[in-house]
Amino acid sequence: MDTEQLLAPEDTSPLGRSRTSVLDMLRAADGPLGVREVAQRTGLHRNTARFHLEALVEAGLATRETEDRETPGRPRIGYQTVAGGPAGQRRYRLLAEMLTSLMAATMPEPGRAAEEAGREWGAYLTEQPPPYRRLSAAEAIAKLTAIMEGLGFAPQVQAGDRDGEYRLCLRQCPFREVAQHHKDVICSLHLGLMRGALTRMRAPLTAERLDPFVEPSLCVARLTAGKDAYAHEPAAERTR
């Protein structure tokens, strides 16, 4: 492992299309924007919009303020850009390596734990359809692709070898350097992320597996239509 690369400050310029759009929106606004406003203007789910806003705060590109209000109710949280650029340099790769290596070394089933964490976050970042509204496989794939795009994976959908099978090609792993040393943890996390999102959508589709690094910068998720991931979840999970 290259220590110099591990300790190098993070390059905050490649934010991804969705996060860059959110940042540009904050810069163009006359004042602080709330999560609801950002979600409405970008078309993102509120949790996804919040995810990008908080990431911009962590990167030192935006600030978060709780606004005073005179009427009863939950106070509004507003986000706005930081004048003069980021405050300090970040070294998230070192943190990721530390936490991932700890998980891999100390947990009895690190891959399984990572997948469960991914499921929770996948569900959190996904909008659930209205009651009794069932998505088609094509709609679910489109929504999943949009989520992965927003997270920086540069996904592309391809038809599989048989009817009802699809390949979701992830051409840019945001955590590639860490994943190369800890595939079991990071790739399981990403598989869980997709499974959690599909379950939240009540999609007639499952993510069967994730093949990591079939090429140096390509991972492939294998999706199968005709299987309802929601139907296989415990009843307690469906009530969330």
Description:
Helices cover 46% and strands 17% of the residues. It has 240 residues and is α+β, with helices and mostly antiparallel strands. Helix 2 packs across helix 4 and helix 6 (110-124) packs parallel to helix 9 (183-201).
The count of β-strands is: 6
Total helical elements: 10
Distance between the termini: 41 Å
- The proportion of residues in beta strands is 15-25%
Tertiary shape: globular
Give the helix level as a range of percent.
Answer: 40-55%
Order of helices and strands: HHHHEEHHHEEHHEEH
Q: In what order do the strands lie side by side in the largest sheet?
A: 3-4-6-5
**Stretches where pLDDT falls below 50 for ≥5 residues?**
234-240
Mean pLDDT: 84
Which secondary-structure class do the elements indicate? alpha+beta
Largest beta-sheet details: 4 strands, antiparallel
Instruction: From the alpha carbons, calculate the radius of gyration and give it in angstroms.
Output: 19 Å
List keywords for this structure.
240 residues, alpha+beta, four-stranded antiparallel sheet, 10 helices, 46% helix, 17% strand, globular, disordered C terminus
Q: Topology of this structure?
A:
Blueprint: H1 3-7, H2 17-28, H3 35-42, H4 46-58, E1 62-66, E2 77-81, H5 92-106, H6 110-124, H7 137-150, E3 155-159, E4 165-170, H8 176-181, H9 183-201, E5 205-215, E6 218-225, H10 235-238
Helix pairs in contact: 2-4, 3-4, 6-9
